[in-house]
Amino acid sequence: MNLTTQSFYAPPPSKWDGLKAEIKAAAGELGIDDIGFATAEPFLYLKSLLQDHRDKGYDSGFEEPDLDKRTIPALQGGEARSIIAVAVAYPSKMEDPPKSGPGERRGILARASWGRDYHQVLREALEKLERFIRERVPEAMLESMVDTGVLVDRAVAERAGIGFSGKNCAIISPEWGSWIYLGEMVTNIPFSPDLPVEEGCGECTKCIDACPTGALVGPGQLNAQACISYLTQTKGFLSEEYMTKIGNRLYGCDTCQIVCPHNRGKNWNHRPELLPDPEVVKPLLLPILDLSNREFKEKFGNSSAAWRGKKPIQRNAVIALGNFRDPVAVPKLTEILLRDPRPEMRGTAAWALGRIGGSEALAALRQAAEREEDGEALKLLHSALKKLEGPEQPDGREEKVRK
Which residues does the annotation mark as catalytic? Predict the structure, then answer.
């Protein structure tokens, strides 16, 4: 049977295949760098993994608690027939980054929070995609999700062929690496699915080996409670061990992506709205501590790093100053220790002063010890005093600050 005869007997292409081809061709104009199609079948394998993750205490607490919602795609008022997964690539390098030096120490935001808030960028791309589809199928049912949706973005992206799931728990695209934002759209249109990516991590364990806190407890297994990305977003006190490991990170952590061989040489600067403002993503630390709510919003409000407000960022700035051990920070840290109404800021300042040391820091700690009433703050205060008044003890491996 020749090719002509074969094609004569082949079933005609679905009308949805034509729409799928149109969507893929238009993706770039819609603000989408990669797009894939998946079935809306339940993610059966995922439910037991998520339950095991929860049972071990690895959840961050930010997740949707209902595991059925996380693993069974649903569409309000209709039947979910397929899912469209989208990816938008973001920069991994900064041009002319400002230098951090004595008296002008700087923190760093993770790359996923550089440029405009990715939630807005992805939502706008998905809205354009929705309009594109409705122009052709007015009756289509479409429901978009970005990060805060109930489905597991990485599982959807993997099924749709955007990339494979790396040992660092990131989706790694053969073309874009892991420097991608993910979103999805559930629909009642029965699009044919794309094939998953065959590539994988092989024997490489660079991400697991490099994780500062050991939060990557195994290939594709993350203890979110120990992940620096999670810790920098929490409010309240952090343990001394974790504060040491945080280095000068103000929001998020990129270590497991930086060391990934699949990301080598990959940097994406084709979307101007995602390019970083160096003074925002690598800001001076001391000025952060004086920001009002309005000033914080003006400086960081365009970034996804602002979603938890200024408290975690200011606490992390105090931690970074302690890790830099720059004596220039002692007067401001003393002011926080003695006057800040937030106990977590006072306790963290005490820890930072204990890291920096010196007679001025010691005097401030002794003064604070006479008036501090919060139990958690007192623990950090007494620990700092013990460090400065007694023989210096080694405190283990430290995470280097990003200069």
Answer: 147
